[in-house]
Amino acid sequence: MNKIIRLGSLLFTFMLLGFSALKYSAGSNRSAIYFLTAAAGFLLVYISYRKKDRPEK
């Protein structure tokens, strides 16, 4: 289950980064910032689930 959430959040991160780049290139700076913020949130979810799956030493 953690692997599915991890891969899904990584996929959404890249999708939102792409949408942010498209919005920024179209001149819609404010919505590009919103998409970039959402991508950062999904990246944090990915990082937290990646750390959760690592075995402890």
TrEMBL record:
Keywords: Membrane, Transmembrane, Transmembrane helix. It comes from the Bacteria. The chain crosses the membrane at residues 31-49. This is Uncharacterized protein. It comes from Ruminiclostridium hungatei (Clostridium hungatei). The lineage of its organism: Bacteria, Bacillati, Bacillota, Clostridia, Eubacteriales.
